[in-house]
Every structure is written in C-alpha cells, then in structure tokens.
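Incident log, support desk, overnight shift.

02:14 A customer reports that sequence design results differ from what the structure should imply. Their input is reproduced verbatim below. On-call engineer (initials T.W.) acknowledged and began investigating.
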C-alpha cells in the first residue's frame, strides 16, 4: 500500500442514534498517532462505486499490543455513508490518514472551552481526550448543541472528562432549549480572554454565529470546518475556503490540506 494508506478491518459498526453510527476499525500498528482535529479518508476496499472516499473525523484513537484502533463517528447523509452503515464486522475498508492539520494545543489557556454542534462533537472528543492528560476536568467546559434529543450523539467520553457540560437542543427535548452559541454567549463573562482557549466544530451556521459573537473580543478560537472533500490531499481544490492571509488580503486555502482547523478570525464568512 502507498504511504498513509492502510487496509483496516471493522470490529464494530453500530447505529448509536438515529442515522448516526460509531465505527471501530483495526489498522496496522504502524498507523501514525493522529493529532486532535485530523481526519481520515475512508472507502470500502475493492468497491469502485462510489469511487470517492469519504472524509471522517477521528473520534478516538488507541494503541493495542499489535494493532491500532480508530473510532469514527459519522452520520448517514448520502450514498457513500449509507453503504458504510451497512458494513458488518470483519469487512475491510481502505483508510488514508491521518490527514490535515490538527488543533494547536501547545499554548492552551488556563481555561478551555469546547463548542460543538451535531456530529462536530467527533473531533472535539479526541481533543478533549488529549487535553484531559494535561488539564483537570474543572478547567474544561463543553457546550453541545443538536436539533433534538435523538440527534444528541458522542457525549459519552466528553461527559466523563469535562466538569461542566451544557447540552442544548432546538426543541428543548434534552437540556436547554437554546442555540449552543447563545448558551455560550450567556456564559462568556465567566471566561477571561487572556487565559481562555476556545475550540469549535459544527455546521457553518453555528460557526458563523460564533464568529459574530467573538468579533469584537480578543478570545483565541480555533475551528474545524466541515466541508465536502474529494481527494483529501489538496490536489483537486474542491474544498477551498476564503480566508485572510498574513497581509490581511483575500486568499483561498484548502480545508483538507491547509485545515481543517483554522483560526476563526481568519475565515471570511460572507
């Protein structure tokens, strides 16, 4: 196999909420330890339809005696993920990764705030796992939003590692009836920008709302963007987004190769 491309064996692929699946894949011990925020491109081994791989954030990662276990949390949204959802234990998949640039965690503030919407909890979970080795749970706060209770997914590990977990649903069926960004905005006075790091991942509307909330402040916020990807390596330019470069002028960067993590203030939303 080419570098970074592995044949993995599925050990679990279970629907844990409506249209949301948790897949566990065994890969060779040589698989590189992923950084929080990185992803893999996955396709069914030997299947040419659909040909394109699907980008999936790494939800959890662990090393065993002679293999690595990758956990992928995904939602069924099209033909490719529908086929993935039907894979059984023992099925083989082709995995390319880890890919992309992860979250910057070398200079994390004293307080850490995570904001996730829907399936955006996946990269947050790996990040929370990583930071829990350096920070006590009392300094980590999670805000999670979903449309309804049946769309709440992936909180098992974060709830054990974060002291303060705030769940919001659009219809109020679980937690607070509120938008997750508004719940955070209500609590902003609890956090000092100088010693707080914010990490976020979710739908574009959620991130745009967060950008407007943080626009006039000085909070440091990194976001993981959810974009359609074809190649995952930057060759096709299909996932380019508008950003401000170092000279504060318009530029385009690829979510797969230059991201998926960006500084929130660098993204041009309109």
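02:41 Re-run completed on a clean worker. Output:
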């Amino acid at each position: 196999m080419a570098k970074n491309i592995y044949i993995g064996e599925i050990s679990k692929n279970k629907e844990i909420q409506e249209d949301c699946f948790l897949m566990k894949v065994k890969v060779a011990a040589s698989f590189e330890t992923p950084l929080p925020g990185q992803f893999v491109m996955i396709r069914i081994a030997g299947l040419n339809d659909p040909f394109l791989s699907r980008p999936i954030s790494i939800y959890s990662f662990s090393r065993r005696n002679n293999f690595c276990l990758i956990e992928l949390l995904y939602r069924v949204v099209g033909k490719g993920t529908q086929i993935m959802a039907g894979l059984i234990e023992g099925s083989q998949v082709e995995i390319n990764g880890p890919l992309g640039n992860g979250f910057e965690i070398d200079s994390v503030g004293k307080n850490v705030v995570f904001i996730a919407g829907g399936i955006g909890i996946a990269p947050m979970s790996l990040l929370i796992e990583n930071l829990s080795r350096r920070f006590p749970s009392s300094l980590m706060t999670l805000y999670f939003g979903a449309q309804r209770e049946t769309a709440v997914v992936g909180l098992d590990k974060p709830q054990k590692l974060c002291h303060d977990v705030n769940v919001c649903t659009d219809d109020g069926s679980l937690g607070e009836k509120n938008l997750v960004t508004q719940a955070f905005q209500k609590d902003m006075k609890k956090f000092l920008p100088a010693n707080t790091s914010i990490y976020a991942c979710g739908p574009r509307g959620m991130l745009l709302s967060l950008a407007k909330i943080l626009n006039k402040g000085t909070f440091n916020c990194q976001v993981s963007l959810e974009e359609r990807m074809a190649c995952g390596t930057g060759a096709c330019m299909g996932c380019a987004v508008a950003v401000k470069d170092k000279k504060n002028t318009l530029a385009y960067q690829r979510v797969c190769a230059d991201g998926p993590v960006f500084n929130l203030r660098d993204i041009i939303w309109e």
